[in-house]
Amino acid sequence: MGVSIRFSMSLQVDRGVPLSEALLMHDAWLERKGVVKGSNFAVVTWGDWDCRVMLESECKLKRIIKPPYFNRWKLETFVIVILHYEL
Q1: Exposed, middle or buried, 44 (CB in 10 Å: 0-12/13-18/19+)?
Q2: C-alpha–C-alpha distance, residues 69 and 57, integer Å
Q3: How many angstroms separate the CA atoms of 52 and 76, rounded?
Q4: pLDDT tens digits for 20-60?
C-alpha cells in the first residue's frame, strides 16, 4: 500500500503545473468563487510552513511575486477552537 501511495503522489507531481501557473489558476478559482482581490479573507493553514516558509522561498527562488493574500494565514487556532467547541 505504501508503494502505491508514493507512486500515485509521484504521478500527481509529475503531471503538475509550474508554480507561476498554479498561482494564476488559484487566482482564477478565487474569482470564480466570488472572492474579490483585496477583500477581507485569509488562507487557513496549520502553521507558517506552507504560506510563510515554503511558498515564500519557492516564489523567491523562481522570481515569482507571491499574492499578498498568502500573508494573511494565521487563523488556525481560531478555526480549531470554533470546530472543537462547535461555536
Answers
A1: middle
A2: 16
A3: 14
A4: 999 999 889 888 888 877 677 777 777 778 888 899 999 99
Do the beta carbons of residue 19 and residue 64 sit within 8 Å? yes
Q: In this predicted model, what pLDDT tens digit does every residue of 15-25 receive, in sequence order?
A: 789 999 999 99
Residues 6+ apart with CB under 8 A from 84: none
Evaluated on CA atoms 50, 22, 20, 5, the torsion sign reads: positive
